[in-house]
Every structure is written in C-alpha cells, then in structure tokens.
C-alpha cells in the first residue's frame, strides 16, 4: 500500500481559498501548526455557507481514505467534506448538526462515505480530482473557530471477497470457484442458505443474484449485535433470472441469503457502496446492466430532453420526453409505451424519433417512433379540463402482418434526470406505492386514475421485490397479479392491448389521466376528439396574439414566438408566473417581470396583474422585495435587483392598461421599495470605496456571484429603471415632491454609474462594460438588459457599448464556426434585441438564425437554461422549457418589427427587418402588435427600390 500523503504535499505551494455567501465571513490562517488550518467563521445571524477550498491534482483509485482531525466549535452547523473535478462534478460527505469539541474528533472518510452530489457525470465514483473543500453550511448559524489538521490520503487495497458457508456443504463445491463463476450453488433442499463472511465490516450498495432458470423467493439477512440473523430485504419468486437488493448506509460483517425454495444460484455480485447510496444510482446500475431501452435514457447517464404541455389556464402541466414517455405531474410516475412484435420487445432503443408540435405554435407535442421493421408509433399529448389526454397510434407499414401486444407501462421514473435534482424531489424517483385496476380504471396511490379506450385486454402489477415490470414485458407477458403495494414506492405495472395488424393498417388507443384527486369527467367517442378540443382551446388563445403573415421561410420565427408565450401561460400556478415546469416551479421577480413584459405585449393583462399584486404581499416591513417566493414563503437571499424589477413591473402594467386605480393600489408598496433602496445606497456609500459610491451594496443576483457577492451593475441598472418608473408614477399620482426627489435620485445614480464604470474600466484595463465592480467581469447578457429597458440612458459611452458587443460577437462567431466550447446559456438571446436597438441589424440576425437552429429539441420550439455542446451530455439544464428565455425570445422577435424607446417616448418600427426579408417583393404583414400606445398593424414591402411602410 502507498504511504500516506499529507496536506503539505497536497498544497504544492497553492493557497487555500476562502469562499463565502454574504453576509457570512471566513478567515483562514494556515500558520497555527504544522499541517493545520485555522477556520474562523461568522454567519452573522444569517444563512449561507463558508468554504475553504484547496486546489490539487489527484488521481483516485477505486478504494481510498481521507483522514483528518477537526477541533473547535462548529456550532451545530452542517459539516461538508467535498471532492471536485475539472468537469464540475462533486462528491460529498455531509454531516448535519455536526458537533465538535476543543479536544478534537478524528474523521476517516472512505470512498464508501463520499456520495455523488452533482455534476454532468450524473453519478459514478471520483477519479481525477482538482479540488478539495471543507465547508460549513448554516444551520443554527453563529460564529466559531475550527482547526483542521493532519489531513492524509491513503489508497486502499482491493476489497477482499468474503468467505462463503452453505447450509448444506457440497463435496465438489468451493467458495473460490464460485466467485470465479465456475461453481454454481445448487440448493436442492431446504433449509438452503449461503452466508458471506467479510472478516471486517463492509459497506455495500447492494447484492445482485443471477439464477440458473427462474428466481426463487429469498431473503437477504444481516447479523445483529446479538448474533441473530435479521431480514434486511425480501424478494419474491419471479420468472426473471435476476434478483436485486439495495443496501444503503450501514456496514455489515456478515450477510446471508436464505432461499424459500430449491434453486440454482449461478452468480452473486456485491455492489459498491456508491451504487446503493441513492435510489437513482441503484437504478442506474440496473439500467446499465439490462438490455438497452428497458429503462429511461437518463438512467444510462445520457441526456434526454422533454417539453411541457398543459392548458392556457396553467395550474399544472405534464411532460413528454423525446423518447415518448409521459410524466403525469410534478415528482410523479411516468407512462411509457412498448411493443411486443411476437419475438422481441420494441422500445425507444433502435428507433428513430421524429418530434413535432401538432399545431404551428401550440404546445401540443408529438413523438413518432420509427423502427427498422416498418412499425411506427405516434404519441400525442394534450391537456383539457385539467385532464391529460394521451393518444397512441400504432401502424404497420410493412408487408408482414404484425401480431403482438402494445404495452403502456406505469413506472416510478420521472422524466427529469438526476442532474436536475433539486427541491421537492424533482430529478429523483417518482412514487408508485399502490397500483390496482378497479372497475375499468387504473388507480395509482389512491389518488390518480386512468382510463383508456379501448379498455386493455390485460393488466398486471408488481412490487419491485418481485421485479420491475419490464422483466415481464421482455417475454411479451404481464405480471400475474392485478394489484401491487410497495413501501419504497417502486411498484410498476402495465396495460396490454392485443394487436393483429395487416399490412398498412393501424391500431389507435387513447388514455385520460386527470390531475391528482380528480375523477374522470371527459368522455371518449364525442364528435370532436378530445385532443382536437384541447387544440381548439390553444388556437383560440394564440389567435389573440400578434399575428405574422410572412414568407413561409420566415414563419418558423413566428411559430417559436407563439410557443414561447404558450409555455409561459401553461407553466403558471395559481398566481405565480414560473420559469420552468419542474426544477423552477417558483416565482422569481426577475424572471417574472420579463415574462410579464412579454405577456403584456400579447394582451395577457390579467395574468400579470395577479402576479404582481400577490408578489407585493411578500414585501418586508422595511420595504425589501424578495428575489423569489413559493408556497413555503419568501426567499431572502441577498439580491438587490428585485427592487427595481418590482417597480418596473408595476409601471409596465400601467403603460399597457392606463389603469390609474392600479397605480393608486400599488403606490404604497412602490414607495416603500424605493425608500428601502435609498437606505441601501446610503449605507453602502458610507462604507464603500469610491468605485462603489452611490451604488447598491454587494448582492448575489447573478449565479456567478453566489459564492462571493459583489457590487453588480445589473442591480444598479434595474435600480435606475425603477427610479425612472417611480418618478413617472409619482407624477401621474400628482405626488410632486416624490416625483422631484425621485428624478434627482435617478440623475445621481446615472452619474454614479457612469463614474464607477469608468473607474473600473481604467483599473482593470478593459474597454467593455464590466458586470461588477470587484470582478470587472464580462457579462454582455446583463448589459443587453440595460439596453432594452434604459436605451441610451445607460450612462456609458457608445465606444464602450461597441467594444462590449464586438467582444461578444467575436466569441460567438468562434463558437458558431467550430471552436471548442463546453456549454452556454440561451439568455444570450436577449442580445438580439439589444443589437436591434443599437442599429446593428445584420448582427442581430446572425444571433437569431443561430439560436433558432439550436432549439432543444428543435421541433418543440424551446431552450433550456444551459445548452451543452454534446447534445447527450448528462449536464444540468436548469429547466426545460425555460419560460424566461422564451420570454426573451418573444421580446426580441417583436423588437424586429416594433419596440418602445423610453428615452424619447417613441415607437421604432422595422428596426430589425433586414433587406433580405423584403427582396422578393412579398409584403411582411403583422396585425395586432400591442404597444404602450395601443394596437398597431404593420405592413412592410419593397416595391422596386423603395420601401413602403404602412401603419
């Protein structure tokens, strides 16, 4: 075994880095003693975290141990020890309510104790490490001091195979030959058990038994402290030839497998602790060791994309993924089709999937599976009256008759993959505790019901202790039972429909699945099919939007705009405008006001009024506006862009409605917001350097600032917009003193902004508009928002804006033309509208063409928050569809035809229309454009060399 490596060898001259979330502080002092680090923290009666990070380069074997000692007082906060690699993957040991003493406590963290936490790998064990972190995450908070010392790392030898004892020894059988796969265990009579002795406690992730023939019922047992065997898990007999046991957590000195009937065990595999640590890692292992296509693509650690569908009223949406699986609701189970063609099971593997929307811009997704044998399956999804409608059409395009079965499998797999994991159990497993068939309905968890037309020819359900339903489907069969209960929530089931299709014939099936707690109220067989009724509801809603009559080659841009608006509508919940259907089912004010700006330009006023009116109820007594809210209440993370955004949202609603009563109602909240903003500026001015004079304090309003809040110009641009709008409101309400004061404050902030930006540019030696004072970072997407809402009042020179977007375009073109890149965020779409406003029309269309071509998936007219270079990279997407990004696209698309200019209260027409769109002489006609000054119809046409504009 290699000799231990110490922290001094790890450091290799590099310094530890202190990372905090404001207002928490952390001071690191490496000079206490040899191989020690003093860790002085103060959470300042707030939440957040403090992290000491050590860069290093280390290749880890399968088995290893990190050991160290911690002395001092951790205050009962959560202790974390983390390993990270260069790709953004993290493995973590976490101990909530960690208690330490001045005498010290020794930690020995083996590979078995470090869980995969997050990252594009989607799971697995650490290998190439480039950083080690020791962190405290606030629980009680408070202040304290730790000494972190004697950090060592040991590679460990291979995990020894246990010795085996059988209930009835066999003369020609040996433990060694069994582990080599050369000597199966033939249990010919009961009692029949196999005991595994590890000599020292071992943490395992699970045990897998391969049988010769069918699997016998059996129990996996562990010995307790009193020497008595206790059942850890029990598996039922099954026709499958493999049994899975998951063993999360505890270590075992001995295990025993006790059979309920004579059988032959061909092989036993002991799974590493990492595999059993979470349900998903366990099912990932099963998927990777099963025929491809039996399990969702994301369990194979490959990206699968999805879209949301619902009705225009919001309040719940379902998901359909590109393989044709349907997730009925948030954090619930999925419905997936399979075909038995008489000899084999046809799944998503081996099929080509063609995606589309059933109607130009309406969010009615479809998936067409094409198998090489000429069989296709069309899957169409919609929501009507809070009930999901799923239609399946199986067609035999071959000249060979197709006789077999169509299966609809109900399984506890969400469509959002594990790298999407977040609050509320998203990106993990759904739950199927109870499933049965009652009077023609499938009933799930006593709350969710499903009926189909025609009714199934057979139905079967199984708990996981017997096996997953796909084990039966692989034989073209169903479980024998028609009900299943599973305490873990891993039950599964399938409906079977017998098919006998001649050449060029089809079989159609429809399912209705109401939202939780509802009964089935829709009826099959009506004169207008249910899915067409759902489509009509969307057509009516989208017909009220601005309509674009353009050459056919340009209509995709209009269709994407309509889909983007539809996604905002269907993802709403009660009062909340939400940016995502799963991961981002919360209401952010920054996302919300951009989506509100899009909705108002689509004539959707009531949705915006409801959102802003309710958001105002979360305002603190001192006037602060939370960055985010949900049913748990307000999130008070330090983010100061929310202040100006709230004021902007209130005034934006007035600009489209002229509702003075609205201003009277919301003015008290606006006034408190602006007063709180002034106090923040005053406090910051007293303690900051001249680079920050007159600005808002440090905040974490940008993902890149979470680890170290900074003075973000994004906050100040929004503050300036808020002051301008507050001034306008005060004038409209005849609050003359307030109007004058706010006008003065807006002027002062504009001057302070310009001065600060110039100082930071000079100090950092940059010519672009920096994102923040401290980092002088390049953030053109944030700058684009300032252009959109402040026009030429940003307070910086034209040369700075030119340099900013020139730099962006240079990098964009490298990416577009094939230079290496990892990922990007489609928030960049907002730069299109900024370039239009700056008169850079041709460059705006470079971006428009690129982002339209990089929709994910293309046919479903949407973007994730993060787009990965490799389409299948198992990397975090943010959420999909990302309605904030969709709103940015909608606003950018409208800006091509018309936009409002705040600086001189004017409308600018055709600022983004290129000559190439007009070259054919065919007119561009847009009807129903909604602006601050009412509805506008626009016709643009080139006749000979002249341009004709009709308004």
Write the layout of secondary structure elements.
Layout: E1 5-6, H1 7-11, E2 17-20, E3 25-29, E4 36-42, E5 49-59, E6 64-72, E7 78-84, E8 90-95, E9 105-110, E10 115-118, E11 128-137, E12 143-155, E13 163-166, H2 175-179, E14 185-187, E15 193-211, E16 218-223, E17 229-235, E18 242-246, E19 251-259, E20 263-272, H3 273-276, H4 279-288, E21 306-309, E22 318-321, E23 326-327, E24 334-340, E25 345-346, E26 352-357, E27 365-370, E28 375-384, E29 387-396, E30 402-411, E31 434-438, E32 441-444, E33 448-453, E34 458-462, H5 470-473, E35 483-485, E36 492-501, E37 505-514, H6 530-543, E38 547-549, H7 555-570, E39 587-588, H8 589-600, H9 605-615, E40 628-630, E41 633-635, H10 641-657, H11 660-687, H12 713-732, H13 736-764, H14 780-790, H15 798-816, E42 823-825, H16 830-837, H17 841-853, E43 866-868, H18 883-897, E44 898-901, E45 906-909, E46 924-931, E47 934-943, E48 946-950
Antiparallel strand pairs: 1-12, 2-5, 3-4, 4-12, 5-11, 6-9, 6-12, 7-8, 7-11, 8-10, 13-15, 14-20, 15-18, 15-19, 15-20, 16-17, 16-19, 21-22, 22-23, 23-24, 24-25, 24-30, 26-27, 27-28, 28-29, 29-37, 30-36, 31-32, 31-35, 32-33, 33-37, 34-36, 38-46, 39-40, 40-41, 42-43, 44-45, 46-47, 47-48
Helix pairs in contact: 7-18, 8-9, 8-10, 8-18, 9-10, 10-11, 10-12, 11-12, 12-13, 12-14, 14-16, 16-17, 16-18
């Amino acid at each position: 075994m290699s000799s231990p490596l110490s922290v001094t060898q790890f450091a290799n001259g590099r310094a530890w880095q202190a990372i905090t979330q404001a207002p928490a502080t952390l001071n690191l002092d490496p000079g206490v003693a040899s191989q020690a680090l003093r860790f002085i923290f103060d959470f300042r009666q707030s939440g957040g975290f403090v992290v000491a990070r050590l860069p290093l380069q280390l290749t880890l074997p399968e088995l290893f141990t990190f050991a160290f000692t911690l002395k001092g007082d951790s205050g009962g906060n959560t202790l974390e020890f983390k390993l990270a690699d260069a790709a953004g993957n993290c493995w973590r040991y976490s101990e909530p309510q960690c208690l330490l003493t001045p005498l010290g406590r020794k930690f020995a963290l083996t590979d078995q104790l470090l869980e995969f936490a997050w990252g594009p790998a989607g799971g697995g064990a650490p290998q190439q490490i480039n950083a080690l972190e020791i962190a405290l995450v606030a629980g009680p908070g408070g202040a304290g001091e730790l000494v972190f010392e004697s950090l060592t790392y040991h590679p460990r030898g291979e995990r020894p195979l246990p010795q085996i004892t059988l209930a009835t020894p066999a003369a020609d059988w040996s433990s060694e030959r069994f582990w080599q796969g050369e000597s199966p265990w033939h249990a010919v009579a009961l009692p029949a058990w196999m005991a595994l002795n590890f000599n020292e406690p071992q943490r395992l992730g699970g045990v897998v038994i391969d049988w010769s023939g069918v699997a016998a019922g059996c129990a996996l047992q562990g010995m307790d402290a009193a020497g008595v065997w206790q059942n850890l898990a029990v598996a039922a007999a099954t026709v499958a030839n493999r049994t899975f046991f998951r063993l999360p957590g505890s270590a075992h000195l001995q295990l025993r497998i006790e059979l309920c009937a004579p059988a032959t065990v061909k092989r036993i595999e002991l799974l590493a602790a990492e595999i059993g640590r979470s349900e998903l890692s366990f099912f990932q292992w099963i998927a990777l060791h099963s025929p491809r296509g039996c399990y969702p693509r994301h369990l194979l650690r490959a990206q699968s994309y999805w879209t949301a569908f619902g009705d225009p009223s919001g309040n719940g949406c379902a998901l359909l993924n590109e393989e044709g699986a349907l997730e009925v609701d948030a954090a619930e189970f999925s419905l997936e089709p399979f075909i038995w063609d008489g000899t084999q099971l046809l799944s998503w593997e081996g099929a080509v999937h063609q995606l589309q929307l059933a109607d130009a811009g309406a969010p009615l997704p479809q998936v067409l599976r094409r198998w090489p044998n000429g069989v296709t399956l069309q899957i169409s999804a919609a929501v009507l009256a809070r009930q999901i409608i799923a239609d399946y059409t199986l067609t035999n395009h071959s000249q060979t008759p197709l006789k077999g079965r169509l299966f609809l499998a109900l399984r506890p797999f969400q469509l959002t993959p594990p790298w999407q994991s977040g609050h509320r159990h998203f990106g993990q497993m759904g739950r199927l505790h109870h499933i049965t068939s009652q009077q023609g309905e499938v009933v799930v968890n006593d709350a969710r019901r499903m009926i189909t037309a025609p009714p199934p020819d057979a139905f079967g359900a199984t708990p996981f202790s017997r096996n997953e339903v796909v084990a039966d489907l692989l034989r073209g069969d169903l479980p024998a039972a028609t009900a299943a209960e599973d305490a873990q929530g891993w039950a599964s089931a399938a409906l079977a429909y017998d098919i006998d299709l001649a050449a060029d014939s089809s079989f159609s099936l429809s399912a209705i699945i109401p939202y939780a707690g509802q009964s089935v109220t829709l009826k099959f067989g009506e004169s207008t099919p249910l899915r067409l009724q759902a489509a009509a509801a969307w057509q009516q809603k989208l017909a009220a939007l601005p309509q674009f009559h353009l050459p056919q080659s340009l209509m995709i841009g209009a269709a994407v705009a309509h889909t983007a608006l539809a996604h905002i509508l269907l993802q709403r919940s009660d009062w909340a405008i939400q940016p995502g259907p799963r991961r981002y089912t919360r209401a952010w004010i920054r996302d919300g006001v951009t989506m509100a700006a899009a909705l108002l330009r689509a004539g959707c006023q009531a949705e915006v009024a409801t959102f802003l009116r309710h958001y105002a109820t979360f305002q603190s007594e001192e006037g602060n506006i939370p960055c985010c809210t949900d049913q748990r209440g307000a999130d008070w993370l330090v983010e100061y862009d929310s202040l100006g955004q709230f004021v902007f949202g209130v005034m934006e609603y007035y600009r489209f409605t002229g509702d003075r009563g609205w201003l009277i109602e919301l003015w008290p909240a606006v006034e408190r917001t602006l007063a709180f903003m002034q106090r923040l500026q005053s406090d910051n001015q007293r303690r900051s350097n001249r680079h920050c004079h007159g600005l808002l304090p440090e905040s974490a309003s940008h993902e890149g600032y979470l680890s170290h809040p900074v003075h973000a110009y994004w906050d100040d641009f929004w503050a300036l917009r808020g002051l301008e709008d507050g001034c306008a409101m005060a004038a409209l309400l005849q609050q003359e003193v307030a109007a004058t004061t706010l006008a003065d404050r807006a002027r002062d902030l504009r001057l302070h902004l310009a001065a600060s930006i110039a100082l930071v540019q000079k100090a950092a030696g940059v010519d672009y508009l920096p994102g923040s004072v401290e980092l002088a970072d390049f953030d053109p997407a944030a700058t684009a928002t300032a252009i959109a809402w402040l026009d030429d009042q940003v307070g910086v020179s034209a040369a700075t804006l030119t340099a900013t977007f020139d730099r962006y375009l240079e990098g964009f073109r490298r990416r577009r033309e094939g230079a290496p890149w990892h990922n990007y965020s489609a928030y960049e779409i907002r730069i299109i509208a900024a370039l239009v406003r700056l008169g850079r029309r041709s460059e705006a269309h470079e971006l428009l063409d690129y982002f339209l071509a990089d929709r994910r998936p293309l046919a479903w007219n949407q973007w994730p928050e993060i787009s990965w270079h490799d389409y299948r990279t198992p990397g975090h997407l943010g959420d999909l569809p990302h309605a904030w990004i969709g709103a940015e696209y909608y606003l950018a698309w409208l800006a091509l035809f018309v936009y409002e200019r705040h600086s001189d209260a004017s409308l600018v027409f055709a600022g983004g229309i290129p000559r190439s769109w007009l070259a054919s002489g065919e007119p561009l006609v847009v009807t129903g454009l909604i602006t601050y000054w009412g509805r506008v119809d626009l016709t643009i046409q080139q006749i000979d060399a002249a341009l004709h504009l009709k308004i």
